[in-house]
Every structure is written in C-alpha cells, then in structure tokens.
Amino acid sequence: MTVSLPLVFDAPRRGMPPRHLADLDAEGRRAAIEELGLPKFRADQIARQYYGRLQADPAQMTDLPAPVREKIGEALFPPLMSVVKHVACDAGETRKTLWRAGDGTLLESVLMRYPDRATLCISSQAGCGMACPFCATGQGGLNRNLSTAEIVDQVRAAAAAMRDGEVAGGPGRLSNIVFMGMGEPLANYKRVVAAVRRITSPPPDGFGISQRNVVVSTVGLAPAIRKLADEDLSVTLAVSLHTPDDELRDTLVPVNNRWPVAEVLDAARYYADKSGRRVSIEYALIRDINDQGWRADMLGQKLHKALGSRVHVNVIPLNPTPGSKWDASPKPVEAEFVRRVNAQGVPCTVRDTRGQEIAAACGQLAAEG
Ligand code: SAH
What we know:
Blueprint: H1 26-35, H2 41-52, H3 66-76, E1 81-89, E2 94-101, E3 106-113, E4 118-121, E5 125-127, H4 136-139, E6 142-145, H5 148-163, E7 176-179, H6 189-200, E8 214-218, H7 222-229, E9 236-240, H8 246-252, H9 261-275, E10 279-285, H10 293-307, E11 311-317, H11 331-343, E12 348-350
Parallel strand pairs: 4-7, 7-8, 8-9, 9-10, 10-11, 11-12
Antiparallel strand pairs: 1-2, 2-3, 3-4, 5-6
The site of S-adenosyl-L-homocysteine has 18 residues, from β8 and β10.
C-alpha cells in the first residue's frame, strides 16, 4: 500500500499567534524586557505572575506600575485564545474546554479529576496529519501547529480552574499533564519540548509540575523519539502501538509505513535507557481487528524482548467515532487479551474512559464548534 505521509516537522508559522511570554525561556524573556527599555528584574516578576499566580492579564498584575502593565501587555501578552465553551460530565469531575485561537483555529483540552490527582489532556496541534483511521482528529487532517504559548496556556488555565475550585470537588491542584489531545506532539517537536520545559520548570520559569507526571504520547516517529531521549527529560513516553505486526499497523497507524514496529520499539528502548522511565504502550482495542489472542501473545513477546520490565501496556477500549464501522471489543475478549499480555511478563491494564458522553474521550477531540 502506498500512502503519502504528511510529515511536516516544525512547519512555518502560518497562522501562529504573535510572540507571547510563554514562548520564551528565561534568557528570551530578559532580552524582551530589555528591548522594551525596562529593568531586567521585571522579567522574572512578570514570569512569577504568569507561572506562579497563573495570571495572564497584565492589567491584573498589581505589583507592576500601570505604564509597565500596558507596555508588557502589548509586547508579551497578545490575546492567545478564548473559551468557546466548557462541557462537563462524570458528576462535574471531567471538563472539556473548546478554545478559539486568534486566527479562528479551534482546539480542545480536557481536565479530569481523580481522588488522588487532576490530569489535563492537552492539544499540541490543531488537527493532526497522522491519519489514523479510528481517530476523530485524524479524519480532518492537520490545520496547524500550536505555538508553545498556546500549549502552555491550556495548562495555565486548567491550573487556575483547579485552584479556584471550578471543578467539582473543591479547590485542588493540577498535578498531571498528558499530550493526548489533538495532534502528534513529536511532529511539532521544538514547540512541544519548549512547552514541556515551561510546564515542568519551577517558577519563575514554569509551573513546576513534576516531569514524572507528564506524558508525551506519539504515533511512533522513531527519530523524534530518539531526539527526545537526548533532551534528558524524565517525562513518560507513551507509544501508540495498537498492534504488534506491521501488516495491520500499516493501516491502523499509517506512519508505520515509514517507521515500522521494530524501529519504533528500538527507539522506545533507547528512550527507556536514557530516561530510566518505563515506556507506556497504548493499545486501542478494536473488536475483531486487533483483539485476537495470538496478537496479545505476540505483543507481550515483542515488548518483553525489546523493553524487558521497562514497559506497561494501557489497553484503551475503542471509542467509536461518528460513522466508524469499528467498535470496542466485548469485555471477555478484552479480559483475555489483558491476561495473555500479562502472562508474557508485561504489565497490562485497561485505561478508564472518562468524558465519553461529551465527546471528550480518547480520539474524540475533533472540535465541532
Ligand atoms: N498523536 C498522539 C497523541 C494523541 S491521541 C498519539 O497518537 O499517541 C492519544 C491516544 O488516543 C493515542 O494512543 C490514540 O491512538 C488514542 N486514540 C485515538 N482515537 C481513539 C479512539 N477512537 N478510541 C480509543 N483510543 C483512541
């Protein structure tokens, strides 16, 4: 089968918003402050407002003199995106937010509160170019990359919502971030890595969320996985494998035609070696497509060989997308699949599926407006 691979790494800034504070690292923001003719110490003061107090509106930064607020507002806080709507479910513990960026681009993030943590699922691109046939986002193609600030500001808004008690259960703290919303994070590599640094550095450079609580999920762009390993981050890598054999994976995850299973697992192993972290394998279980017992055995064997004990399989019951001919596997089939992967010495569990009735579950994030 021949597929054209829409692999545009770090495409040009088409539709990108103007520069925002959250696009800049410490050095960059100091340079920007100097360009404005302001004293250097203002740079960290502003960053503390944004990352520490989660304040994105310079008018509210009352520790700054009014003329400074105006100046930095124009130069470093262009409007990034506005809320189109919030939709809640799971007794208010899951909340999806639809955002509209400055150029009209729509994107989504989903906040999920659990007894012991609060996880935000964020988008790294508007749309996605990877064309996986079971994923709603994949059907619409890639609109554009998100800027670092557009990624980071999804986190700021959710952290503020948790702090302010906007999610059922009272005030709390945003603790976990997963790059499992719209887009392929490693196809927007530089901006995503910059966003990871902003998310995980302590204030004034970032929100101070533990790297161990951040998951970057990829279809398996092997060279980009290796590059990420060399960044010396300790974020968790999740690989959307979905089947252990190339024949089926070529259709489920079309980029497999370019980087087949063996290469993806090699890269995952390199990531595990460099980071010391377990790699997470995502497996959307699809009835009569990839749920056979022999596939479970093969999955367990291949993963055990490639990654030893440094791997965990997350089975995700397929969320049928509108018009899809595919469905989730029956529960007994799912249980047998999980049992057989575990039997190969590879830990395997079924992921809970939050947000189903608000189209906020895995692979359903195709903004409808
Ligand atoms: N592009 C990245 C991250 C976004 S999707 C990636 O592919 O990993 C996050 C996870 O949801 C991926 O494992 C993806 O395969 C899975 N997913 C997408 N559509 C789904 C669906 N309809 N049902 C279940 N899981 C789905």
